[in-house]
């Protein structure tokens, strides 16, 4: 069939390619151009303006700190969850279903959930007050309490974003035949050694995917931060948003967008390199 | 080295009784096969001995020490799995060294033991490779080397050859026998392949429906099956079972009157190995109607009926019998097993 009409496959994938090109590649090229041009000619003005801005260093530092704090914790929690649920017989599906609920909530909604907990009149303060631990409403999310604010955002992000890591890791764990663990057990490996020497190396591909996905998403953190901290906790995407909407300066906003992209791409490349998966060493 | 005592072990999975009450003693240095069809409980029993599964009831003693409640690693055993379970992310060397490293053996001992085990299994040239670069047979060698490297008191093997192709299986079987004989390790070998069990074992425990039907040497189990199941499961073709009437404590077979055990009633089941016959003439011999005669080269396989009951017998290749012939057979009376038609057990086994 296709030998007679060699263009048929191309014709069939054309719509999706055109759609992606139109809505992804064109804006990407435009953004790149926007970032490195000024009044229609190449220029580093936007870059310089971005770097010189008062919030630039803060937002860069905050984004990196948040990523460094959130992603490892998410991986660790997801590994623990995945390992625990693999021991469960009946009810496993239900547990997984409950654990993945946060996946179904938009990040802004997730931010608002945690806002209702942590704001001055929120549930957290109510509980602390009823336990007699505080005497009056305490602010956790203001610019005067940067550490508490950082923690609040980190916790909300961990709550919201761990499920996807867990889903990937559970899928990875399911790929590991139980004989490997049993063999390790027979030959004297305790639970920790089995995890470190057998499970972890064998779920490397899943771990790699989870790390890339979560890290890229962590560098794009915005809505949760915006809901909880507003501009008290500047992050890169937040700055891009402000330059775009408040300041109406599309050039600097584009510069931020390009910076985020470069960071994400670098992180991905580092993971691909550092966690190189040799297909020869997989089951 | 150690003996193994399996003492009234039971195992249930929910309402399903996988093991109904199994007792078996395996002597120090002995090679015992657990042989049976799938679902007979043989793998469950092996996994209980290994500590990968817990018995619902009963005791397991290795070297006269109860191992109930002990972790697998504290039982002094090694295991070879059906699908090898050779770690794909480690080199062959690291795979073989895995157990030794867990025992915190020093590097000289690790090197020496790996070299020894690799030498026995002829995998020295693959030590630096990863298992995925190896064939199934080579991987199974790695798995056996990994087990022997720790010099276990007991070696457990769960259908280790069943994933290999027929030719390789035969080759590995011979080699396993040589290797294990020189190692002298007490071995329990689970298989559904009767030729493997016959060829390798000192003794065979034939399992069926969660119980051990018979334990004995390969020759013993083959020639004197304790039950109809054992006779039918072991041997190719399986044992023939012919129901015959008894009169005055004797059974009429052609011109012969063969005495049957005193316990026999009005009818008895004559258990006959296909090759325990020779061609004779009628009416001296037992009459057999031949439906199909298949010359197999090494022998002649006849399928047909005796007393209207289906049988398969084997004659020397030199005999000429055609489809549809009626022939007379002389039975080797020493090799007849008399079984009760009611219980399906052999009378000699019932008395024992």
Automatic annotation (TrEMBL), chain A:
Organism: Rhizobium oryzicola
PANTHER family, alphabetized: ABC TRANSPORTER PERMEASE PROTEIN (PTHR30193), INNER MEMBRANE ABC TRANSPORTER PERMEASE PROTEIN YCJO (PTHR30193:SF37)
Start and end residues of each ABC transmembrane type-1 domain: 60-271
Transmembrane helix found in the keyword field: yes
Protein name per UniProt: Sugar ABC transporter permease
Keywords: Cell membrane, Membrane, Transmembrane, Transmembrane helix, Transport
Membrane protein topology class: Multi-pass membrane protein
Pfam families the record matches: BPD_transp_1
InterPro entries: ABC_transporter_permease (IPR051393), MetI-like (IPR000515), MetI-like_sf (IPR035906)
Similarity section: Belongs to the binding-protein-dependent transport system permease family.
CDD domains with a match to the protein in the record: TM_PBP2
Entry keyword DNA-binding: no
Localization of this protein: Cell membrane
Transmembrane segments: 12-36, 64-84, 96-117, 147-173, 211-229, 249-272
PROSITE patterns: ABC_TM1
Chief site of localization: membrane
Superkingdom of this protein's organism: Bacteria
From TrEMBL, chain B:
Subcellular location: Cell inner membrane
PROSITE patterns: ABC_TRANSPORTER_1, ABC_TRANSPORTER_2
Matching InterPro entries: AAA+_ATPase, ABC_transporter-like_ATP-bd, ABC_transporter-like_CS, ABC_transpr_MalK/UgpC-like, Mo/tungstate-bd_C_term_dom, NA-bd_OB-fold, OB_MalK-like, P-loop_NTPase
Pfam family membership, one: ABC_tran
Main location: membrane
UniProt membrane topology term: Peripheral membrane protein
ABC transporter domain mapped to chain residues: 4-234
Name of the protein: ABC transporter ATP-binding protein
